Structure formats: C-alpha cells, structure tokens
Fold this sequence. Notes:
- This protein has helices at residues 33-39, 54-61, 81-94, 105-118, 171-189, 196-218, 223-242, 247-259, 263-278, 283-293, 298-309, 325-334, 345-357; strands at residues 22-25, 45-48, 68-72, 98-103, 122-126, 137-142, 145-150, 158-161.
- By secondary structure, it is an alpha/beta fold.
- The protein has 2 domains: 29-161, Rossmann fold (3-Layer(aba) Sandwich), CATH 3.40.50.1970; 168-357, Dehydroquinate synthase-like, alpha domain (Up-down Bundle).
- It is globular.
- It starts with 21 loop residues before the first strand and ends in an 8-residue tail after the last helix.
- The structure holds nicotinamide-adenine-dinucleotide.
- Nicotinamide-adenine-dinucleotide is lined by residues 50, 52-53, 77-78, 103-107, 109, 127-128, 130-132, 135, 137, 139, 165-166, 168-169, 173, 177, 240, 263-264.
- Residues 50, 52-53, 77-78, 103-107, 109, 127-128, 130-132, 135, 137, 139, 165-166, 168-169, 173, 177, 240, 263-264 line the site of nicotinamide-adenine-dinucleotide.
Amino acid sequence: MDAARRGWGVEHRFEYQGRPGRVVFGAGRRAELGAEAERLGLRRVLVVTTPGRADLAAETAATLGDRLAGLHPHAVMHVPSDVAAHAVATARELGADGCVAVGGGSAVGLGKIVARDTGIPLLAVPTTYSGSEATPIWGMTTDGVKRTGHDPRVLPVTVVYDPELTLSMPVRLTAESGLNALAHAAETLYAPDVSPVTSLVAAGAARSLVTGLPKVLADPASVDARAEVMQGAWLAGWCLASATMSLHHKLCHTLGGTFDLPHAPTHANVLAHVLAFNLPAAPAADAALREALGTDDVPARVHALVAELGAARSLADLGLPADGVERVVELATADPYANPRPVTPEGVRAILAAAFTGASPVPHS
Ligand code: NAD
C-alpha cells in the first residue's frame, strides 16, 4: 500500500480479523470477578501474579469464594521457562479449570503459558497498561532467549479492567507504562495491515493516553484520570493484537532481549525518535497523531511528555552501554519488521544516538 494513504480510515482495500473476548470495565468492578468465573462455569480457579502484587491479587481472588483453587504469586518478567513449568504443574496438581492473571504484563504472560499448556481459559485483571491482556501473543524465555508466538488459547476470554487497581502505580511507572501503550497505537497508524477499524481505535487510544497521563500526573489519586489512561491502554492493547508492529517495536525487542533493558521505560524512551524517523514517510498516520495529540509536531510532543511525566530520559540511564549501539544497529537492520520507510543503518544509528543521550528527536526528511 502507498505509505501516504496509510492510516486514518482512508484505506480502500484491507483485511480485518475480529477476535472474541469480553471486557468488563469500571472502578470497583474487580468485585465482579467471581460472577465472571461463574458465568464461565469455572469451579477451580488458579490465580497467578507477581510477588509485588500478591496482596492485591489475594484481595481480588477472594471474590472467587470457594471457586478459588490457589494463589500462585511467582510470576517473573519475560516468563522464564522454569517459572512457567512450575505454574503449569501447579495448575495441573490443583485440577484448575480456569486461570486468572492479576497484575502487569509479567503476570498475564505467565497466565498465558498456563492457558496454552493446559487448555484452560484465562481471565485477566490488569494492573498496568502493558496491553498483553488484549493479545493472543505469548512469550517465554529459555536460556536467556525470549521466544514469542500467536495462539488463540492465550487470549483472555474475559478482562476485568478496574482503574482503582492502578492507583498504586507510582507516577513514573504510570508514565512509562502509558507511553508503552502509546507506542502500540502509534505504530498501528502506519502498519502494513492498517484498516479503518484499527486506525479509529489507534487514534482513540492515543487521545485517551495523551490527555489522561498529564491528569494522572496532576492528581495521581484521581480514579477518573486513571480510567481515561486505562481505557487508552485497553484500546492500545487491542491495536497490538490487530496490527503488525514496525521499527519501534523491533528496536525495543532488541534492546530488551540483547541488553536486558526494562520493557516499558525503553518503549517510553525510544518512541519520539522512531516517530521522527517514520512519520515523514507516513503522512496519514502523522495527521491522525497530530489531531489526537493536539500538536503540529508529534515527535517533539512525545519527547516533551517523557520529560513532563518523569519517565526515563535516555537509553544510557536505562543501562545501554555506549558500545551496544552498533550491535543494536546490526540486529535491527539484519531482519527488520515491516516499516513505512526503509530501515537503514544510518537511520537507526541516528535514532539510537538521540535516544542514547536523551537529546531532542532529530528531524528526518
Ligand atoms: P510488569 O508486569 O513486570 O510490572 C512492572 C512492575 O510494576 C512489577 O514490579 C510489578 O509488580 C509492578 N506493578 C504492577 N502493577 C502495579 C500497580 N498497579 N501498582 C504498583 N506496582 C505495580 O511489567 P509490564 O510493563 O506490565 O509488562 C511487561 C511484560 O509484559 C514484558 O515481559 C513484556 O514482554 C510483556 N508484554 C507482553 C505483551 C503480549 O502481547 N504478549 C504485550 C505487552 C507486554
């Protein structure tokens, strides 16, 4: 497709694949988890979470009543295969007929492997904006190498979004997780498989995230502001499941996989620089983002947001060694994802040079 026509509902030839899934959204609605399990006819539910969310997961799990088979607070970021095997064995030992993941992408990631390997349905109660709960994508790490795959069994059958669960997120985690979500929406707008539906959802996601995040910064205890961001995160997760991601995601996967940089802060840091590179080649996506973000300069606005919200300022701060830049250039250009403009070593080097120091995005014509 001509890049100039990508995005913003102007496609005249496209394919769109819908996915099943029930969403229950609203403050306090975690109390309905038991009713949702009942709706699905579940009798023995295993709840998985990360150690840091154990108390919150226990409180949420209590709504399952005697349907609760066990609480497994052992999820770890990027789903190490031994951690996954332990959870799958626990589900089998308990005779679980359903799994609930309470937490961020790490908890949901573990629940996905339980669902994949046991065939039981997964429900999710997200506490960050990772969007994993909206996708049929699993990930698992063996001997330091993360593999991912698509499997319809790992898509949660029900997601309960309760913005009250995000009140405990520190502002910095909120910002980085929210900007991670914005990256899903932004790359959807210039995806090779963009459709009128994905464009509309992506623009809505971007708008909710960019208007909601400063409100959270101003009043972290505002459930309304948290709800606005969470709604954006749901839509952005939907985008991640519905469109092919491009250079930004490739760079972040490389930085996370090869240098173990943290997931959401890396996304937050790199996004403005990739948009400066890609948007000149994707004018329809640029127009959609300008309107959604209320700005004439999308990369500059995203870069300013990173600073205003107190997210990580540079890849150097996140732990990328200076001599790692060339390795990322090699990896990102060797096997690039689909992208609206050719991924050249010079282009990637310029993106990384700016992201490494936290400099302003470099305009690329
Ligand atoms: P995470 O789940 O590891 O959470 C980050 C940290 O925040 C953890 O220490 C956690 O305990 C804490 N936390 C979570 N919720 C909190 C809350 N409400 N208040 C305070 N602290 C809270 O990180 P994440 O960014 O949510 O997820 C990252 C993982 O998800 C990565 O492994 C990534 O690859 C994966 N992911 C997968 C998909 C997919 O579609 N498969 C999509 C996005 C992310």
